[in-house]
Amino acid sequence: MPKIILAVTEQRLTAAATTWIEAVLFNGALAVDATVGNGYDTLFLAHRVGPKGTVLGFDVQKAALAGARELLKFVGTLDRVSLIHDSHTQLANYLPAEASIQGAMFNLGYLPRGNRQIITRPDTTVMALRAVLANLAARGRVTILAYRGHAGGIPEYVEVRQFLEQLPDDPWIIEEFASTTDSPVSPRLFRIQKKLISEEQI
Ligand SMILES: C[S@@+](CC[C@H](N)C(=O)[O-])C[C@H]1O[C@@H](n2cnc3c(N)ncnc32)[C@H](O)[C@@H]1O
Fold this sequence. Notes:
The protein is α/β, with parallel strands linked by helices and 202 residues long. 29% of the residues lie in helices and 26% in strands. It has a single domain, classed as Vaccinia Virus protein VP39 (Rossmann fold, 3-Layer(aba) Sandwich). Strand 7 and strand 8 form a beta hairpin.
């Protein structure tokens, strides 16, 4: 079982996610935004995968996807993004054949300035995580920002953590980050990396 190392970061957790994930993205990479929302993470990934890359972005809210589409069109990066009106649990149905994911971002909870009743759920989040990890490239990275301040936030955080804890040590490296102002309801960031060479290959 991997030990999940808890560390405190002085960075904003959103920055601790983006600066880490961009290090493994390149022009032509495949990235996944599991929760498009207002599209800010999708936009970030679209820049980092470059004109030859692809971003698959999922959301269950049509209105969120419409807003994200406008943003991406305005900035000129819509060409490399597929906005998918479906649950992230269905990821495997949308992956190009033989494709492996270089980076994936999960930003859990509800849509800021949107309907607070529509939130990510523990079981479907874990299902989507399984699908992402099963299709992650060696050295690929996944970030999960878990918000704990709303009803449903803590059970989801707990279930995601339990899922990550039972993953095998090889090939996974898992870290958890708290901010300097951490409290029992503050967000937490998980960062998961797939090792380059698994012990089985040595
Ligand atoms: C915290 S928001 C995402 C914020 C977004 N990353 C941004 O940059 O604005 C969470 C989003 O997850 C979406 N969501 C909830 N359940 C989902 C599911 N099963 N599959 C995909 N998206 C889901 C919600 O509709 C909401 O827009």
